[in-house]
Specification:
Nucleotidyltransferase, domain 5, Ubiquitin-like (UB roll), 19 helices, six-stranded mixed beta sheet, alpha/beta, homodimer
Chain lengths: ~700, ~700
């Protein structure tokens, strides 16, 4: 199309991609971008009517790039662009790249947020920019009118024009459009916008929606179906903007709090599977209504959707019986990525809209873990990354560019505040931070909803309003860790009843002792059983991690990512003191929030990420902890604080750890004060809990 | 897989394909066939359980091929084949090619009718063998059991095995199977038969159905949706046998007898389109029940279906509003081939079954004409072939390997007995053959249901039972032609009233004369209006043909094919005497029955024919008679018997034609006895009837 460029042609640099090339004067900026593979949206195909191809010329001397860029180096606004500016408006400095030609060296900025209808970015769901290459593209064409001499059908002439103007060959067409194509073409006076879905893994590019005239909106959903919470982003496929984000409780909770009780419900009730499928789909449609209302978007403009979830949510959402996942060998009905239609699974979005579900890694490591892996990308880097998502099951991924291994470990619900005497979910009034003075053994704490510590002025007032209602997950970690750091509990987790002599906060409670954290209504204590529950949970997690480290042949990890809500609130330092995670430079331990949701968003905005995670999941080695003979010993070692055998040198640089007792070999009984047969059998039972 | 063959290896010739090659001793006959591209079915994949891969060794010295073939040149029956013979039975001489190895030179016959369940071929719908290459293939595999170490999903392991055993890569899977795959695999104890649909034009090969264990039946439908009659074949996709054929009236007739009245119904009634779509789909499901019952086939084993029909039937069947087809420019909503699902259009066949609809050629030349073109294949030969399907509209295709042109011409319903005073549809008692003695002008005739001519002994008895009820289409052609040959009507179609003096069979009837064909109850006559109606109809057809001949630049055609019911009953000689069709060697004029149905059958049994007709339709040049300035003159010329200007030299060799009157130029009025302005304006009106 363009003459071959030569050294005297203007040099054009596109930002933020950094792609550059020389183009003959007169080349449109849009053509130059396309030739370089820079993704600049265009719906109208260069007619200067959609406004999606906006760019900004950066003025100045970019010495590093040897470019002096100026608005004088781009053609002035022509009639078509002026008409667009008059009718639709064009922000200061913005140009339509389809209508601007290169007349000299340029640095061109491609804004990722091209706002067409003055909508504002409501929420930044992402901490990094995703290069867009969505599975759905809008293409406006003007179709030839019917001609008796060349009696091609309306649809066939539309396809011919989509090939001529946009290069789409051999397009398929969604069946539901056949009866509508005539009306739509005539209503648009032969101008029509087609939504083309192309996603190599499924089939040939397909026309999935049609509108009369220029249609300038296309949206997608990225949705993480958690057992507890369903989270959804509504995103513009044309600009990448997150238009709205929202979440809702998973209504399946009424059939069972945790995953296994939901599987049991399916096994016990003939219509159980259907009821839970219906419940989750209804909730998703409700959430869809909410984000569409918030974003002022018509659900009919939603053309693509990406879903992730753990294997049981994944199966129930797709209408598949999850019973097999409740027992060995935990067989998934389908582990590969699923391509389907919104209409097939009852989504109230555009009738032709597609749905993509990320692959599952294993029977207990689902599409959510795959999405988190996509988001954090251990396989994209050389450092050994540990990615952990803690829930009732913890999903653990460990690896780097060379090799990735994954497992799940049955942590149980202790980290979520269940099984803890004063535990509760995170909510206003819940204790979220705890410190214990090692001298006095007096605690101070903060509650959700107040900025003040309990020993600061004004706390009493806040507490009066909010109450002090219990201990949430993050504080459970902290209080047990602080009890250990202050000597209240020993290396093996026994509360030292002798300290009752020093402070009334330690008191006898049946055969064991407890720590009084807050005297009030309710009275908040940490019992020996609470400490044991946390020990069991963290041992399961750590043993799983350690197993993967052994598989990788490493004795430490370079970086740790906590995915999920739990990880967002805990203090990495305390998690490490407790021995929840292995030793690591504390600066390299980060909470990444809903990484699964971010991964879904990435797969929505760029279909290349779909291929990337499909390929990655095929490569990931899955470790089934229950089948590993080593797991039980690792579990028993991990019952100690932080660990019976593993050193924590990096942690020791940041925190003064209590002196370690002489390690008397591998006998778990030898180190603890409570080496009764009853305790040992409990640990072993817990170790065996990892599915047998 | 096999070592490269050399000149000392045994030579194997497959019949009827004639493909041959040398193969090392020990090669299975099935592998040899596959290597040569000879289609030998196999469902079980070489396990000697499905029995589909049967072959017969031809014994003897095949000097022409330099092969001495003997059953001694094939391995004796092994244990697996003996087990099959014991359990399922194997006819004399039949061998399982998967279990027989080549040990010497062989001539191998691949029977096209491999009968597995002792079903008999009920009806030969085809006059030639169609090489099979159906869009659906059954593949039995034994899937690995779930493995916690390699946690691939059930579906993913199934796909892996289909790739390993059958070479299918990157299979898609029908959405409805996802929730079923677990149960099916376990029910079959990990042995499962998958139906794979592959049809290049649609998408990647797809698993469309699954059964536990070995499933050895797969069927398809080939259906021609006529305005009057719907015809259906039920065919085994594994052997090519036509298991049952049936037909039914198109229930849309209650909305309108002819196509245009059905379009009007849609235009006048808001729910008209839906009502007609429902009616035709219900009729097709009824027919499906009938052929399945007749063939003792479960409708759930029907996995593929091919439909053809004229454009209006095509649109209504697919749920598309046909209104645009009722007026210029007669725009089709879709002209290309349509790929859809049986479930999408309400067919009660296997839920994953596919549907293929042949392309339409033009707004009045539909998928039925395309199917007839596929069946008769003018484009496959050098001779100039005229293919005509006469109905209310006549579809005309003319061409050869070099070029094909097509048109439709509005013949009206006269040939079907409508607009004829004593006309009726073909039914017992209807006159179907007529001869008139040129001396006495006495007629003799035959009626449907009797073998006797009316002047033979025993006719009166038959007529007494059946009645003599009217004249059907074929006899209308004959009686008018015989009236012309015997001098009752002139070259321009006027009944010679003066002949009333010679015979009472000619009598005055208002301002014109009539001919009495049969004195009875009812009295059967041929009126001047009847002759005129036939003239108008045949002129429209002939003018259309002539227009295509002009486009092709030919003054004669080499061969003529009459498709459809009408063509099956008329005598080509009389059609030519009447000037319905151009002059041609009478031996080269053939009725080919339901060629549209045959074409559908071909596209069902061999998907290569789908590509062939799609490509052909793209190449066919469509002529719109209404837009051709020449059409009116051709029409007027064709009003004469056989034609005012065209000679019929080949016909004259077979039939003594009345002497032609001196041709007084092109003025149509000059030749006839009835040159009144009224008559001329009627001819011209008729000529203009070709849609304006």
């Amino acid at each position: 199309m363009n003459a071959p460029s030569n050294i005297t042609d203007p040099l054009v640099l596109f930002m933020p991609s950094g792609k550059r090339g020389r183009f003959p004067k007169g080349t449109t900026v849009l053509d130059a971008a396309r030739e370089l593979g820079v993704y600049v949206e265009s719906v109208c195909g260069g007619r200067a009517t959609c406004g999606r191809c906006q760019i900004v010329v950066q003025e100045g001397n970019f010495a590093k790039h040897k470019i002096v860029s100026s608005n004088d180096h781009i053609s002035p606004r022509g009639a078509k662009e002026e008409r667009y500016e008059r009718v639709r408006g064009l922000a200061e400095g913005r140009r339509l790249s389809c209508s601007s030609t290169i007349e000299g060296d340029l640095v061109v900025d491609v804004p990722q947020d091209t706002v067409i209808n003055a909508q504002v970015v409501r929420k930044a769901a992402l901490d990094h920019i995703i290069e867009r290459n969505p599975a759905v593209q809008l293409c406006y064409v003007e179709v030839d009118e019917p001609d008796m001499h060349k009696p091609l059908g309306d649809l066939d002439r539309l396809k011919a024009m989509l090939e001529k103007d946009w290069g789409w060959q051999d397009l398929l067409v969604s069946q539901h459009l056949l009866p509508r194509v005539q009306t739509i073409l005539r209503k648009g006076n032969w101008g029509v916008t087609a939504a083309i879905h192309r996603d190599l893994a499924t089939s040939r590019p397909t026309i999935i929606a049609l509108w009369p005239g220029l249609h300038n909106e296309a949206y997608g959903l990225a949705c993480d179906i958690g057992s507890t919470t369903i989270a959804m982003h509504l995103v513009s496929l044309l600009s990448g903007r997150v238009v709205a984000s929202s979440g809702t409780s998973n209504p399946q909770i009424r059939f069972g709090e945790d995953l296994m009780s939901r599987v049991s419900y399916v096994m016990m009730n003939p219509d159980g599977r259907q009821a839970m499928t219906t419940a989750v789909r209804e909730a998703i449609n409700g959430l869809l209504d909410k984000v569409c209302a918030e974003g002022e978007v018509s659900s009919d403009d939603v053309l693509d959707a990406v879903f992730v979830g753990n294997p049981i949510m994944h199966h129930l959402f797709l209408g598949i019986d999850p019973t097999e996942l409740g027992q060995a060998p935990f067989a998934l009905a389908v582990s590969g990525a699923v391509h389907t239609w919104g209409s097939e699974i009852g989504l109230k979005i555009n009738e032709g809209a597609r749905v993509y579900v990320l692959p599952c890694i294993a029977g207990h490591v689902g599409a959510d873990a795959a999405a988190a892996t996509l988001s954090e990308g251990p396989y994209r880097q050389d450092a050994m990354m540990l990615l952990v998502d803690v829930g009732t099951n913890a999903e653990i991924v460990l690896g780097n560019r060379a090799r990735v291994v994954a497992a799940s470990s049955p942590t149980g619900p202790a980290f979520e505040g269940a099984e803890i005497s004063s535990g509760q979910r995170a909510a206003p009034g819940a204790i979220e931070r705890v410190r214990i003075d090692p001298e006095t053994l007096e605690p101070r704490f903060r509650i959700i909803g107040s900025e003040k510590w309990s020993d600061e002025d004004g706390f009493a007032e806040d507490a009066g309003k909010l109450g002090v209602t219990g201990i949430c997950g993050s504080a459970i970690i902290e209080v047990v860790a602080e009890m250990y750091l202050s000597g209240i509990i020993s290396e093996d987790g026994v509360i030292d009843g002798a300290l009752a002599a020093r402070t009334p906060r330690i008191f006898q409670n049946g055969r064991t002792s407890s720590y009084l954290l807050h005297e009030g209504q309710p009275r908040i204590t940490v019992t020996q059983n609470d400490v044991r529950a946390i020990q069991l949970a963290k041992s399961a997690l750590y043993a799983g991690i350690k197993l993967l480290m052994e598989k990788q042949g490493v004795d430490h990890v370079d970086t740790i990512r906590f995915a999920g809500a739990f990880g967002s609130f805990i203090d990495p330092k305390y998690a490490m003191v407790l021995g929840l995670i292995p030793d690591c430079d504390l600066a390299e331990v980060k909470a990444v929030g809903n990484a699964a949701g971010q991964g879904a968003l990435m797969a929505l905005l760029n279909r290349d990420y779909r291929r990337e995670i499909e390929e990655t999941v095929r490569r990931i080695e899955k470790i089934e902890t229950a089948l590993e003979p080593n797991f039980q010993q690792l579990f028993v070692n991990a019952m100690a604080l932080p660990n019976k055998v593993d050193p924590f040198p990096k942690l020791a640089e940041a925190v003064t750890l209590p002196p370690r007792r002489a390690n008397a070999g591998d006998d778990p009984a030898s180190g603890g004060g409570d080496a009764s047969p009853r305790r040992r059998s409990r640990e072993e039972r817990a170790a065996r809990r990892s599915r047998t």
